[in-house]
Amino acid sequence: MAKSSSAAGTKVTIYDIAKVAGVNPSTVSRALGKPERVSAKTRKLVEEAAAELNFRANPLARALLNGRTGTIGLIVADITNPSYFDMIRGAQSAAAANGLTLVLAESAESASTELMVAQRIQPSTDGIILASPRMSDPEIRALNNTKPVAVINRSVESVDSVVPDVEPGIAEAVRHLASGGHRKIAFLSGPDASWISGRRWDSLRAACEWTGREALLIPTTAPTAEGGRRAAREVVASGATAALCYNDVLAIGLMRELQAAQVKIPDEFSVIGFDNIFGSDFTTPALTTIASPFSEAGTTALSLILAALPSDGSDPLPAPPGRAALPTSLIVRGSSGRLLAG
Amino acid sequence: MAKSSSAAGTKVTIYDIAKVAGVNPSTVSRALGKPERVSAKTRKLVEEAAAELNFRANPLARALLNGRTGTIGLIVADITNPSYFDMIRGAQSAAAANGLTLVLAESAESASTELMVAQRIQPSTDGIILASPRMSDPEIRALNNTKPVAVINRSVESVDSVVPDVEPGIAEAVRHLASGGHRKIAFLSGPDASWISGRRWDSLRAACEWTGREALLIPTTAPTAEGGRRAAREVVASGATAALCYNDVLAIGLMRELQAAQVKIPDEFSVIGFDNIFGSDFTTPALTTIASPFSEAGTTALSLILAALPSDGSDPLPAPPGRAALPTSLIVRGSSGRLLAG
DNA sequence: CTGAAAGCGCTTACAG
DNA sequence: CTGAAAGCGCTTACAG
What we know:
CATH superfamily of the largest domain in chain A: Response regulator
Strand content of chain A: 15-25%
Number of strands of chain A: 12
Order of helices and strands of chain A: HHHHEHEHEHEEHEHEHEHEEHEE
Helix content of chain A: 40-55%
Oligomer: homodimer
Radius of gyration of chain A: 26 Å
Largest sheet of chain A: 6 strands, parallel
Strand order of the largest sheet of chain A: 2-1-3-4-5-11
CATH architecture of the largest domain in chain A: 3-Layer(aba) Sandwich
Number of helices of chain A: 12
């Protein structure tokens, strides 16, 4: 009822400003969007009116028109998984730095959910980052045909991708274990649909072959601490004296369970994780891990999207897909080392 | 050039479907949106055409019209801070469960950034959750006048809020310390703009008074591990034998620094954190902490927003703001206990 | 430099 | 039950 001068809550449009400033709505749009195309006088008029009414352009209307929504989507397989935290952070800050908003969604490790979610958010975004996607290559390419897509931790033909180069980190890890007297190294794998899990295993096998060690694959039920605990028995039974794990939480679960079974770490068994997540140095012993530059992966994926966005002019050359490879490295902490003969 | 039958990448609108189905665009809209208002025959026609063309309604256009965007915003002070992870997760899964998309943004602990971000994303959302907001009460109320706002970890007049009830957890902690022989308890505070930090300190002081202990406030430079390390010297100098910390990372930083200075924990000094973050049980000794049900806070905040959304009919009674109070509790682990006389 | 008009993709009274 | 029209808030050629 009360006519407050700073009436909050009322939707103010360019028409309101036009009325106050005494110009046409299209002029308001110009004054605000491309100030150089109006006279200094009207610009001032419009700006003052806009300030007075506390005007804020409706991004939805703008998006409907020129197709640019100003938001980028990020879909992760599991929002609970701390491996993604740095990636989310990297993407988020890169987005903010470019005046974009980040939309976060998750697929719950399900390929079909992932596709649904992607299709659902695609119209409201300018592009989508898929972190460790679980869906098929053709599905990803189809999404990429509609709007720019960048995948992290996977390589898909003709789609921008950011993949850690696992080789250096794994080679370091194997040398480290070999020099510690380990001869048989287990790999606790990630989800079947995880492309990067396959690459890590391949790389481990190659490194073991090269150094004359034995590598063996042990599947896990889930890439969680619980998954690591459940695999402990099989790991011990396998005769391996060291394990590389698909990720750090898996490694921490494994280590905890082994310790509960009185296995001394690292004297009797070495555990190495992947990703260097927050808290991986809190354990006793602190976890040795192969670090992937996830924050940088998020940032890089975002810039790939940015680069793929249709520029103002025409985009004549459909540039080849961007391929960023980020080097991994071994961080030696207390959970790995020399094997003491029983 | 090639006319693929499953042409991906082309924007398909209700007009395309109308053409294929041989009906008016408005009928397409009805058939898809309120199927009960069209004949079974046309519904089938439209549905088939939509399926064939792989149609997906543009949420932007819809939002522009009826104001419902189908997305909820979540603004956190610091995306790096693991205290928020569970909250983000709770809000995200609740949103997904309701067919909504979650937009994540951060304010970098700055009140002005926070306001800007909130204003920026408000038009594209149906409501906003503010986690530990730093801006002023009137600013929050103004946002709330435009679209529903729910705040977490703060109480703002006439705005929906979810606040942990710090009292039980802190009372437990003080009893725990008192029975361990501690007489002087320090509180490492959070950011000045943190409402909840103030509540925690108030509650600690009251509990200490009640049990005849001395409480003292020690300010910190940042709610991070580094902030905790920096405060260690002052904590020791103060003569306190136990510290309650604004959050777990602060506590972990403090503990690490004390241990580096050869202070035995918990024999010579007890450390208690807040929030029970991921990894807080990885430390040695594991961190005693006061748990706030953050995941539930995220979920609850989302349902408050949902409840505040203008329903289809009129919303006659402007319901009083929702106020959820979630109980905290002490989780005793190894970093706190009986004080051994030097 | 500025105004009038058309249109982005959808929904919703309004007629019929 | 269905069609034709108007409109959500903005932008952008097109005239002048």
